[in-house]
Amino acid sequence: MSVKIVKDIMHKGVIACHPNTAVTEVVRVLADTEVHAIVVTGPDGELTGIISHMDVIPLFGQPLEGKTAGEIMTRNVVTVSLENTVGEAMKLMVEKHIHRVVVTEAGPNGARIPVGVLSTTDIVREMRGSRWMWYFSPNP
């Protein structure tokens, strides 16, 4: 089996917001779509954070009005490049106990520009590879 690189199986593009985006809008996007994380970017598109379900659920039962993405985002985002191997990305996910890494390219002045996301689901789907079939026993 050939070595797979991140750009082969990642989700291309990102759903992003700015740090001043209202948390109510972030929650709406997370609730109404199949997106599980929103990347937070600065004015030049540079990566500044990420917001996942785990960042918003501690707010359950609290008023969301007035809160911004910048207040609740995770700032230390784990990233990989397009050319990292899937194995390298997977090792980071396991070590850090995370479900996704942001894929970045170098931008002006060394800024990390998000270009995609690689999730554990992407890796599991790639592992599946060939066709398979469930076999059910009539008498469990």
What's this model, at a glance?
The protein is 30% helix and 24% strand. By secondary structure, the protein is an alpha/beta fold. A four-stranded mixed sheet has the order 1-7-6-5.
Tell me about this structure.
With 140 residues, this protein is α/β, with parallel strands linked by helices. The chain has one domain (6-128): CBS-domain (Roll), CATH 3.10.580.10. The protein has 6 helices and 7 strands. It has helices at 6-9, 23-32, 53-56, 69-72, 86-96, 120-128, and strands at residues 11-12, 16-17, 37-41, 47-52, 79-81, 100-106, 112-119. The strands form 2 sheets. The protein has a 4-stranded mixed beta sheet with strand order 1-7-6-5. It has a 3-stranded mixed beta sheet with strand order 2-3-4. The longest helix is centred in the middle third of the chain and has 11 residues, at 86-96. It is globular and about 50 Å long. The termini are far apart.
Mean pLDDT comes to 91
**Helix share, percent:** 25-40%
Assess the beta-strand content as a share of residues.
Answer: 15-25%
Rg result: 17 Å
Q: How many DSSP E strands?
A: 7
By CATH, the superfamily comes out as: CBS-domain
Helix/strand-derived class?
A: alpha/beta
